[in-house]
Amino acid sequence: MPSHLLYVRVGSCVLLLGTLACRRDTTAPAREHVALAPVAMSHDEGERSPSPAGTVTFESFALGAIHGQQDWQSTGGEGSGAAPESRCAVYDHVIADNATMVPTAAREAVFGRRSLRISNAVTSGCYSDQTFSQRAADVAGESGAISRSRDGATDYAVTGARLRNRFEAEWTLISAQPSAWQPGLELVVSPARGDDHRMSWVQVADWSDGLAVVFAERSDPAAPGAIERSLVVRGLDRRRAHVIRLTMDFVDGAHNDVVRVQVDGVLRHAGGSWETYYQDDVNGRANFSGATPAVNRLMFRTGSDAHRGVPGDPAPATRGFGFLIDAVRVSAYSVARSADACRDGAWRELRDDAGHAFRHQGDCVRGAQRLRRDP
């Protein structure tokens, strides 16, 4: 998805960088203090919404290649056995025995015996050969969002999937070297559908002062191909497991989707999706004719985007380490946004802003009214 401009937000400032000015697909770990914009706390902080797809903990996965296990896809992952023409590189993405990596307390609480381990010892400019999570039972996107490939031959949705207006995902992560800094370590996680196309972007990187989370959006109609990145949080303890939750609300129309990022139960950032790219950018429109891709899973990518001036250099020293990822949950469901949407029994298919089912139509109407008052 080519682009020639890059915006980086640090605090309240936005800088426009030329393509040759960026060396890495990350926001630089500057030493100066970075002020984070205040964000209102979520009223459902700390709660976990129900997920039709369940939560994957990897305990029942075989060690080694993750490709093909329980709906996970990773043709470029180590040991996948995929044909060479289906991958651009062999990535250090495997199911690992993490007993020697995760501190005992964290391992017992979250990680168990096995986890997905990913490092960016190897990177490439490709997308569809990276690691994709299990699919949600439904797909999410605006009206008209597309779950099929451009040629129509592949449907990335589960059979019988319906289009919903919210996508929610959660994953738990810890450094595989919790007592040491892994310079250059970074991983991007994106709502996707199984091919090259994404609708958002959350990066976790290991900086000198701890782990950092960075968010990227494409929401400027004047520069729809540009990527604007914001620092969500930095200085996270490498020795602790951290829970990242991404919630995407798809709203029909232009430039109005809402993406929220929580870290360890605290709402840290709210921004836009990548709908502007697909609706307004020349390359985006060429792929989707103004529609957007539906999403139903997560792409875990160790990538290089040299064509956008952000190479994403590999970090060879991270091989065998990187991040351990566990408790991956994905869900697509519809939120009640108007009283009319609750009528004629439709309330049974809707949820409130916290992802909870309604008890009856009146409950649904009140939930929609609350959402309108506090979007």
What report would you give on this structure?
- The chain contains four helices and 19 strands.
- It has 375 residues and is mainly beta.
- The protein has two domains: 329 residues, Jelly Rolls, CATH 2.60.120; 40 residues, no CATH class.
- The strands form three sheets. Strands 3, 4, 5, 9, 14, 15, 16, 18 and 19 form a nine-stranded mixed sheet that branches.
- A hairpin with a 2-residue loop joins strand 11 and strand 12.
- The N terminus is likely disordered.
List the helices and strands and how they pair.
Elements: E1 6-10, E2 13-17, E3 55-56, E4 93-97, H1 104-111, E5 114-118, E6 131-132, E7 139-140, E8 163-164, E9 166-175, E10 186-192, E11 201-207, E12 210-217, E13 227-236, E14 242-249, E15 258-263, E16 266-271, H2 275-280, H3 282-288, E17 297-301, E18 323-335, E19 350-351, H4 361-373
Parallel strand pairs: 1-13, 7-8, 18-19
Antiparallel strand pairs: 1-2, 3-18, 4-5, 5-18, 6-17, 9-14, 9-18, 10-11, 10-17, 11-12, 12-13, 14-15, 15-16
Would you kindly provide a brief summary of this structure?
With 375 residues, the chain is mainly β. Helix content is 9%, strand content 29%. It has two domains: 329 residues, Sandwich (Jelly Rolls), CATH 2.60.120; 40 residues, no CATH class.
Domain module count: 2
Query: What would you call the shape?
Result: globular
Proportion of residues in helical segments: under 10%
The CATH architecture of the largest domain is Sandwich
